[in-house]
Amino acid sequence: MRTRRMIHVLAAAAAASSLLVACSGAGGSSSSGGGGKSINVLMVGNPQMEDIAKLTKDTFTKDTGIKVNFTVLPENELRDKVTQDVATQAGQYDVATIGAYEVPIWEKNGWLHELSSYADKDTAFDKADLLKPMVTSLSGSDGKLYALPFYGESSFLMYNKDVMEAKGIKVPERPTWQQIADIAAKVDGAEPGMRGICLRGLAGWGELGASLTTVVNTYGGTWFTKDWKAQVNSPEFKKAANFYVDLVRGHGEAGAAQAGFTECLNAMSQKKVAMWYDATSAAGSLEDPKSSKIAGRVGYAYAPTTETKSSGWLWSWAWAMPKTTKNADAASKFMLWASSKEYEKTVGEKLGWSRVPAGKRASTYELPEYQKAAASFGDITLKSIEQADPANPGLQPRPTVGVQYVAIPEFQDLGTKVTQEISAAIAGKTSVDKALDDGQKLAEEVAKNYR
């Protein structure tokens, strides 16, 4: 009964995109059938994924003969499409990028291939080298891996060192959110057209919802108490959300209500904002002189806090194999390669060491080439990942694990609907308090399923 309800919830969450999925897609099932010489891969359009799409043909395909057909989508569209495909068992893709949120839920539903057996057989893969937080977050209830990490991340603050030096500002290594708000006001307009800070305002549980929830946590709020009492319009949640919206409205990027990770990355790298709070994985792109105007001039600080000692999130974009694939062997070869030391070396040598998809292997941080390229952000990234506490990210016990999300299938829909309203508040179309009062009603309906 519970599995049926999960299927209904996840499929409904993606229903809006079902017609698009049926019409566009990646060309249906793999052309080779069981032969495994062609696989379809669905992945989010982040820089690291764009890199692997460029490198695969002349490396993996050349060595194995396996052709990889990539479908690359923005984060919100990716989440809708992969949920649609997996929850309805459409079988359109052999591999998909999913995250720590989906893995334990989908494993319980029997939708994913276990991957530990493949990783254990491949001695060159070196499963023991994977960082423990990544392994834990991508394992099922049986202790086996159900996704292989492509890269791992926490969150931190990135800032333009030239701007801070010109203003005589020293950004604390462990700042508070109030300190960051004060700095944002001082550097707003420091250069023509520059705003003080970039914060995600694009609706979506994994877009605005991710960064906002870390602020809610450190302000003492939570989506649900341990005994499943909804807290979306609690004083702590409201205080955090009002702070976030006021900051981004007062000193945030232009068009903030439509700005997610990609838009903020562009704004920061092109000197349109002086600071940015977001994923640690962004550092590699900011330090790439080919695409960033501030490469070599970026400062990094731990995720800002208010009431907690730390507040960085924990996430991994990872490769998963739906059980519907008919190309398990070929798909597993691709995933093992994409998460391997070999692939990291390929990226370093061909594209630059700062662009290595890090945050998943201990050995990455021991490579002299990577240490040099990541000198400004490597250590703080690793420590942020190690310090993230998905079991206890706030001031009170939680009903599930997860720093920036609630690990239940309903959260995908709940988080998206609530952030749609908060995004509207950023755009000046409603108030934060009304958005959260409406969100409280939705959260209370979800809580009824668990009490």
Please describe what this structure looks like.
The chain has helices spanning 2-13, 18-23, 47-55, 57-64, 75-87, 102-108, 116-121, 132-137, 161-167, 177-187, 208-218, 235-251, 261-269, 283-286, 328-338, 341-351, 368-373, 378-387, 411-426, 432-447, and strands spanning 38-44, 67-73, 95-98, 148-153, 155-160, 275-279, 298-302, 315-320. The chain has 20 helices and 8 strands. The chain has 2 domains: 38-153 and 314-375, Periplasmic binding protein-like II (D-Maltodextrin-Binding Protein, domain 2, 3-Layer(aba) Sandwich), CATH 3.40.190; 155-312 and 390-448, Periplasmic binding protein-like II (D-Maltodextrin-Binding Protein, domain 2, 3-Layer(aba) Sandwich), CATH 3.40.190. By secondary structure, the chain is of the alpha/beta class. Residues 1-22 form the signal peptide. Pfam families: SBP_bac_1. Keywords: Signal. This is Sugar ABC transporter substrate-binding protein.
Summarize the entry for a quick read.
With 451 residues, this protein is of the alpha/beta class.
Architecture blueprint of SSEs:
Elements: H1 2-13, H2 18-23, E1 38-44, H3 47-55, H4 57-64, E2 67-73, H5 75-87, E3 95-98, H6 102-108, H7 116-121, H8 132-137, E4 148-153, E5 155-160, H9 161-167, H10 177-187, H11 208-218, H12 235-251, H13 261-269, E6 275-279, H14 283-286, E7 298-302, E8 315-320, H15 328-338, H16 341-351, H17 368-373, H18 378-387, H19 411-426, H20 432-447
Parallel strand pairs: 1-2, 1-3
Antiparallel strand pairs: 3-8, 4-8, 5-6, 5-7
